Amino acid sequence: MRISSRIFKEDSKVSRKRGKFCTNGQRLFSRTHVAFYRLSRGRIGGRLWNSPVLILTTVGRKTGKKRTTPVLYLRDGDRIMIVASNGGRDQEPSWWTNLQHDHHAEVRIKSEKRKMIARKASEEEKSDFWPLLTKMYPAYSDYQRKTKREIPVVILTEESR
């Protein structure tokens, strides 16, 4: 084995470990955020970087288990807009993959819980909301430049009773 190939293999191992650490760190942050949000009814964790935060619960497409994550949002009347940015990564966030499989979700804003239906915003809707979303959280623009995929805007509407 040549030295350069050994170095490459070592680099890829380190890269995988960093990726795993990042994922585990995000998972820990997310779980902690959700716990404080629930306990305080949104008083702690209800805003992040001066943007409103909701708690989104989806059903895992493979496991069928409930999956919960904090997400920044923007309201438009009864509709709620969220962005499937995944921090600008090329892979979609798992909550969006889950919602594409099962459009039903539960949203918690402060102490209020609502059952919602998710759909991807049309190009026209996205062009209307994207400037408002990037004004709320400017990093979304950076994320879009960083990734190869088109970052979707997801519209949540209340489920019919």
Average pLDDT works out at: 85
CATH architecture: Roll
Poorly predicted parts? 1-21
Helix and strand sequence:
HEEEEEHEEHHE
Content-based structural category: alpha+beta
> CATH class, anyone?
Mainly Beta
Give a description of the structure:
The chain is an alpha+beta fold. The chain has one domain: Pnp Oxidase, Chain A, CATH 2.30.110.10. The chain contains 4 helices and 8 strands; from the N terminus they run αβββββαββααβ. The protein has helices spanning 3-40, 94-101, 123-136, 139-146; strands at residues 47-48, 51-59, 66-72, 74-76, 79-83, 104-109, 112-120, 153-158. A hairpin with a 2-residue loop joins β6 (104-109) and β7. The longest helix has 38 residues, at 3-40. The chain is globular.
What is shown here, in short?
The protein is an alpha+beta fold and 161 residues long. It contains 4 helices and 8 strands; from the N terminus they run H-E-E-E-E-E-H-E-E-H-H-E. Strands 1, 2, 3, 4, 5, 6, 7 and 8 form an 8-stranded antiparallel β-sheet that branches.
